[in-house]
Specification:
- The complex is a heterotetramer of chains A (287), B (234), C (333) and D (239).
- By secondary structure, chain A is mostly helical.
- Chain A has helices at 2-31, 38-56, 64-81, 92-113, 124-127, 140-162, 164-174, 176-181, 186-211, 219-233, 238-258, 263-277, and strands spanning 129-133, 136-139.
- A two-stranded antiparallel sheet of chain A has the order 1-2.
- In chain A, helix 1 (2-31) packs antiparallel against helix 11 (238-258), helix 7 (164-174) packs across helix 9 and helix 10 packs across helix 11 (238-258).
- Chain C has 333 residues and is mainly α.
- Chain C has one domain (7-322): ABC transporter involved in vitamin B12 uptake, BtuC (Orthogonal Bundle), CATH 1.10.3470.
- In chain C, the strands form 2 sheets. Chain C has a two-stranded antiparallel ribbon.
- In chain D, 37% of the residues lie in helices and 26% in strands.
- Chain D has helices spanning 42-50, 72-78, 95-105, 112-123, 138-151, 168-183, 195-201, 219-224, 226-232; strands at residues 2-13, 16-27, 31-35, 57-62, 65-66, 80-82, 156-160, 187-191, 204-209, 212-217.
- A 6-stranded mixed β-sheet of chain D has the order 6-7-8-3-9-10, sandwiched between helices.
- In chain D, helix 6 links the parallel strand 7 and strand 8 (187-191).
- The chains are: A mainly alpha (287), B alpha/beta (234), C mainly alpha (333), D alpha/beta (239).
- At the A-C interface, helix 4, helix 10 and helix 12 of A face helix 6, helix 13 and helix 15 of C.
Chain lengths: 287, 234, 333, 239
């Protein structure tokens, strides 16, 4: 029974990983940019939510009303002001600049919030659960997290394939030059994509902060989980990132069941196994 | 004397360190059809790209309706009324046929062209509107590329390598539709490697050779040999 | 009229002689300076070596790795295992760390080379995390909290403290200057010609007979081996080691990348200049703590956006200066 | 025996067939000219011969060996060198170093410096030996393409549009260079739009259109043939 429980909990935590991954996947899809600072931005969103909750007394989930727009606005400005200047010059400039961003964010958070761990308190939501079967309890929080991941990915999917903004995302991703011929200003489209990515980051950051303690140096680990989910699921496939997140979550859950020290390691091993057998991921988009 | 729709003055254009145009000048009146001919590498595509803002470094002037657009970004130039159907069609592969067309209308200029009128011109596009663009044949993609350019209701339409890689019957079909497009008053620059066909369609031609204008005028007033010489440089 | 191919420039001859002089001065340092200075120079040598090696990978072979801490940590763990568990003289464990790192880099490359560009970068990082997590499971070496080299092991290096410090210092000097020498000789060799060509255009390199994959693999393995030796050195310098410190992405990769980028990527001089700047900044700004790291990150971003060739690239373009002539000059034209 | 032999070589990108069952023999020591309009598949054909692309179907034989699956680098080592239509210089290296790469990793690595210098000499690039290739104007880049390919000591040299944009006197010296190379026993296949240049050295022409070989033979027959006039000069063959 503990094994089934490990798998079920792994599936649910996979939703959180899918949210880490979705924003990463979105901007890679639109502008081929890999944001090394993605994980640190998630943690920054956690701190922002913490600050908002402490200043206003809002429930952590309600704080998203403030946190998500702020994060999106920051993403828009970051892309227009900095990241757009790194595109089209090879892989090093975006990599280095987002690496620098990562170091700045980590140390900035350390400076403002110190190295003490913090947590957001979501009240009864955190402790409530129901029994799926004897020995398998489903917590309301993990369930809500998974459901949110489904909604986020479905919304991104809808936006990408059924709205005019999504059409422009796909167009600049296909062919920047011809997109410009249509009157599309690619810099603004990229900025919109980054804003959207950071809105998802905000949601992920709030759930991260409710679920566990966080500190300024947690970012790189979250980046890696998101990255693994993207690669396992297959590049450019949003539902694939959910599958990737779930597989990662299950691998970690099963690993932890074998030996608590193997939790994260088991996820990495699953990632390298997929890479060895299916280098393009399990569900690559056919192109 | 009326100001021409387009006036290119001593245009030099470069890609990186390589210069492709060495001082090209030409004029185009509203509603006119101009054939731009020349061998491979003569600079025809570069000239079209320079006019619509896709070449990084332009020296000289490109006056469109009296306004210098030589250093404007492409996304602004289309709003002024210049549209290009690029060489190789360049459909957006992850968009459907209809989405390609809708994007062509993003500049939102007023005029006769809309989804309905483009579908009326190319009925086959309407049949395939839900399909992804790469699923179409080369000829259908070319129609879609023309339609996409028309959707912005341009005053100047640039058609690059219209018949490249297309079967002869398709080429014939497309050429038969060109007068219907010109009837709306849009001026056209036509780049075409089928020189005979281009000269038969256009009112005037400009021949480029190695980035210079080697000959221009009314197709009827120049002998075939003159044109061949201007074309190959022999 | 026959043309003659030569490789040196006037600046390079002057630089070569000065370098020999400087090396002699550095070698004699234990006789005229104190332990604190020795340690500072030793630490500088660590960063000089890491930056030079990372530059070979990213600046020439196009392999932008953010996982070089895997080999630093691996080298450290090889040294501490051989010294503490097998009773080796730690100095003898240094070459073993290099061989071990090179050996393990070969299968690692087979996996991470499947990823392209930025994904390759993160893939190498994940690999480094795997190394860290595995090392944290070794309870004989203190598990997650790590362990220290025993005094007995340190005594095997040299009996007295000054002699020990000097030995570790010379090892650092050998690895720091050695890494630059290896980079220089490598870039002057056939492989160097291939690497420079690959840096400029992979398509053209392929069409001219360069076996790109083999060249990249060779460089990756060589760099891993030398990085492993640097890791062993770091363990000797620090004595105490935990998995988190041994496999730190910030210490062994982020700062190294900043050094190379600020100094000038794709040149031998760049990492040297970058390491000097890094140490000068550190001497004056380190007390700012996290603010200093933020300044460093911002400086690297600024250089990347405004002068992607780095400071040495600027010097080179402005004055045509080259201290390490890896190129060829045709004379008597 | 033919030095190069293509057997029903075919390649498609998606729905677009760019090489359509091309079969062709090139004899040792010949200069073959390749003509065809834009988009006819000429450069793709070179990519298939040199190994930059793999065919979907068909075989490439070189000197009696099947090289269809061999990577480009190995083909260069066997003696197939090419120039690129869009020049692809090693921008951070000097002209001499560019040629030296070909000489060092090509068919015969010994005396590489001497061979690199000789290749620069033949192509007229020697005066610029110490210039960084990234700063060269277009024409010099094209010459460098040829020099680099030559330095690799090829048995088969593939030239892709190297005469475009040359003045008359430059064109004459290019033709002299090509004749010199040919006199040393190198087999040459040359794609060119400057027809008169091609006609002055090629003994045989092939014409591609829509990826198909539509004509081959002596230059006079080929240039006079109706198919060629129809596709090339656009004289639509009515009736």
């Amino acid at each position: 029974m503990t094994w089934i429980n490990a798998v079920v909990q792994g599936v649910l935590i996979g939703g959180l990983y899918a949210m880490f991954a979705a924003g990463l996947s979105l901007i890679f899809g639109v502008m081929r940019l890999v944001n090394i600072g993605h994980g640190d931005l998630i943690v920054a969103a956690s701190y922002l939510a913490w600050a908002v909750v402490h200043a206003t007394g809002l429930h952590p989930l309600t704080s998203l009303v403030i946190v998500a727009p702020l994060a999106a606005a920051f993403g828009y400005a970051l892309q227009l002001g900095v990241l757009n200047h790194t595109l089209g010059k090879g892989i090093l400039p975006p990599l280095l600049v987002t690496f620098g961003l990562s170091v700045i964010l980590q140390n900035g958070m350390l400076l403002i919030f110190t190295a003490d761990t913090r947590k957001l308190d979501a009240g009864a939501l955190e402790t409530g659960s129901f029994a799926l079967s004897p020995g398998v309890d489903i917590g309301y929080l993990p369930l809500l997290m998974f459901a949110t991941a489904l909604v986020v990915i479905a919304a991104l999917q809808f936006l990408f394939y059924s709205t005019s903004l999504g059409r422009e995302f796909r167009a600049v991703s296909d062919d920047r030059e011809v997109a410009a011929l249509m009157g599309i200003d690619d810099r603004r489209v990229y900025a919109s994509a980054m804003a959207l990515s950071l809105a998802v980051v905000a949601v992920a950051g709030v759930f991260l902060a409710i679920r566990s303690n966080f500190d300024p140096f947690m970012g790189p680990g979250r980046l890696i989980f998101g990255f693994e989910a993207v690669i396992i699921g297959g590049l450019g496939n949003l539902w694939g990132t959910l599958a990737g997140g779930v597989i990662l979550g299950v691998a970690q859950g099963v690993g932890a069941e074998i030996n608590p020290g193997w939790q994260v390691l088991a996820g990495h091993i699953a990632f390298f196994l997929v890479l060895a057998v299916r280098p393009r991921g399990l569900f690559p988009r056919i192109s | 004397m009326v100001e021409p729709l387009l006036r290119v003055e001593a245009l030099r254009a470069s890609y990186g360190d390589a210069r492709a145009l060495h001082g090209v000048s030409l004029e185009l009146r509203a509603g006119e059809t101009l054939a731009l001919i020349g061998a491979n590498g003569a600079g025809k595509s570069t000239l079209l790209k320079a006019i619509c803002g896709l070449v990084g470094q332009n020296e000289g002037r490109i006056l469109f309706k009296g306004e210098d657009i030589a250093r404007r970004p492409a996304s602004r130039i289309v709003r002024l009324g210049v549209a290009l159907a690029p060489e190789g069609r360049r459909m957006f592969p992850s968009l459907s046929v209809e989405e390609n067309l809708i994007l062509g209308g993003k500049a939102r200029r007023p005029g006769p062209w809309s989804l309905e009128s483009v579908y009326a011109l190319f009925p086959v596009l309407k049949e395939r509107r839900r399909q992804p663009a790469p699923a179409m044949s080369g000829g259908q993609q070319q129609m879609c590329a023309i339609g996409r350019a028309l959707m912005s209701n341009p005053e100047l339409l640039l058609l690059d390598e219209l018949s490249l890689g297309l079967a002869p019957t398709i080429i014939k079909d497309i050429y038969e539709l060109l007068p219907r497009i010109a009837a709306g008053g849009v001026a056209t620059i036509l780049v075409e490697q089928d020189v005979t066909r281009a000269l038969a369609t256009a009112e005037r031609f400009v021949c480029l050779q190695e980035g210079h204008v080697s000959l221009e005028g009314d197709p009827a007033e120049h002998s075939r040999d003159d044109i061949t010489r201007a074309y190959f440089g022999t | 009229m026959s043309a003659l191919v030569s490789r040196a420039t006037r600046a390079s001859r002057v630089a070569g002689l000065s370098a020999l002089g400087l090396a002699a001065v550095l070698v004699s340092a234990p006789w005229w300076t104190d332990i604190a200075t020795e340690r500072l120079i030793g630490e500088f040598m660590v960063y000089l070596a890491l930056a030079t090696l990372w530059n070979l990978l990213a600046g020439y072979a196009g392999l932008v790795s953010v996982g070089q801490q895997a080999y630093v940590g691996f080298g450290a763990y090889v040294l501490i295992s051989l010294a503490s568990l097998a009773g080796w003289n730690p100095l003898w464990a240094v070459p073993m760390a290099g061989l071990g790192a090179a050996a393990i880099a070969t299968p690692v490359a087979r996996l991470v080379f499947r990823l392209q560009g930025a994904y390759f970068a993160i893939g190498t990082w994940v690999m480094a995390e795997v190394f860290r997590l595995v090392c944290a499971q070794i309870s004989a070496l203190g598990g997650g909290s790590g362990t220290s080299l025993t005094p007995a092991a340190m005594k095997l290096v040299a009996a007295t403290r000054p002699a020990r410090e000097a030995a570790i210092y010379w090892l650092a000097l050998a690895l720091g200057l050695g890494a630059v020498a290896v980079a220089y000789l490598l870039l002057r060799s056939r492989i160097g010609l291939a690497l420079t060509a690959i840096r400029d255009s992979e398509i053209a390199s392929d069409s001219l007979g360069i076996r790109i994959d083999r060249v990249k693999l060779a460089v990756y393995v060589l760099v891993a081996g030398l990085t492993g030796m640097v890791g062993a050195l770091v363990e000797l310098q620090k004595v105490r080691m935990s998995p988190d410190a041994a496999f730190s992405v910030n210490d062994w990769t982020a700062f190294v990348i900043f050094i190379v980028v600020i100094g000038g990527i794709g040149t031998i001089e760049g990492p040297i200049l970058g390491a000097l700047i890094y140490f000068v900044l550190r001497e004056y700004l380190a007390e700012l703590g996290s603010l200093y790291l933020m300044i460093l990150g911002a400086l690297a971003i600024l250089v990347m956006l405004t002068a992607p060739q780095g400071l040495w690239g600027f010097v080179q373009r402005r004055f045509g200066l080259s201290l390490f002539p890896t190129g060829y000059r045709v004379r008597g034209l | 025996m033919a030095l190069l032999s293509l057997d029903t070589l075919s390649k498609a990108y998606g729905a677009l067939v760019v090489t359509d069952a091309v079969s062709l023999d090139v004899s040792e020591g010949e200069i073959l000219g390749v003509l065809g309009p834009n988009g006819a598949g000429k450069t793709t054909l070179f990519n298939l011969i040199a190994g930059a692309a793999r065919p979907d179907f068909g075989r490439v034989m070189f000197d009696g060996f099947d090289i269809t699956r061999l990577p480009a680098a190995e083909r260069c080592r066997l003696g197939i060198s090419r120039s690129f239509q869009v020049p692809n210089p090693f921008g951070g290296m000097t002209v001499f170093e560019n040629a030296l790469v070909g000489a060092t990793f090509g068919r015969a690595p010994e005396h590489s410096e001497a061979r690199a210098l000789r290749a620069l000499d033949i192509t007229g690039m020697k005066p610029k030996a110490n210039v960084l290739a990234g700063g060269l104007p277009l024409l010099d880049r094209k010459r460098l393409e040829m020099a680099r390919a030559l330095a690799a000591h090829p048995r088969l040299l593939l030239l892709d549009e190297i005469a475009g944009g040359l003045t008359d006197s430059e064109c004459v010296s290019l033709l002299t260079a090509i004749r010199d190379v040919h006199a040393e026993g190198v087999t040459i296949v040359w794609i060119e739009h400057v027809v008169h240049a091609l006609l002055s050295v090629a003994r045989r022409l092939v014409v591609l259109n829509f990826g198909k070989l539509i004509a081959q033979g002596a230059p006079s027959e080929v240039m006079g043939s109706r198919e060629v006039r129809s596709v090339y000069l656009g004289e639509t063959a009515h009736g």
